[in-house]
Design brief:
mainly alpha, 3 helices, 0% strand, single chain
């Protein structure tokens, strides 16, 4: 029977370590829920419903204009709107939809920038702390070396 190899990364953890990891995991879950709520406010489920309603309204308005113009030309139906006006109204609706989509994309990009900026700020803080700790460790090592001599 071949000898079993022990995984060097697997070690027995003290109960206090397990509790600390569970606490950290719970804190991570709370932060994740906060972020989900924030993202939901910016463009989550409620926004998706609103987007669908707006899309349906725009689609119906353009479809009604198209149907009215087709009926005017094919069936000779008398519609109170001039033919050019319905075309202009259709172009206006499409333009408003495009502007609305650009606005929504700008909101998403702003949120992404804010998140990345926050991450960069935290990373810079951590880097400064690590450098301070390295300096302290180096000073302690130098002091230890000087005392040994």
């Amino acid at each position: 029977m071949p000898p079993t190899r022990r995984n060097p990364w697997r070690t027995a953890m003290a109960p206090s370590d397990t509790e600390a990891l569970q606490e950290e995991l719970e804190q991570f879950r709370k932060e994740k829920e906060k972020i989900r709520a924030l993202v939901g406010q910016i463009g989550g489920v409620v926004s998706n419903r609103r987007d669908r309603v707006v899309n349906v309204v725009f689609l119906l308005a353009i479809a009604l204009l198209l149907i009215a113009d087709v009926l005017r030309h094919i069936a000779g139906l008398d519609i109170p709107l001039p033919p050019l006006f319905s075309l202009e109204l259709g172009v206006l609706l499409v333009s408003v939809k495009i502007i609305w989509m650009i606005h929504k994309q700008a909101r998403v990009e702003h949120f992404q920038f804010w998140i990345l900026n926050s991450i960069e700020f935290r990373l810079n803080e951590i880097t400064k702390s690590v450098r301070r700790l390295e300096d302290l460790a180096q000073d302690g090592a130098d002091e230890s070396q000087r005392l040994r001599s």
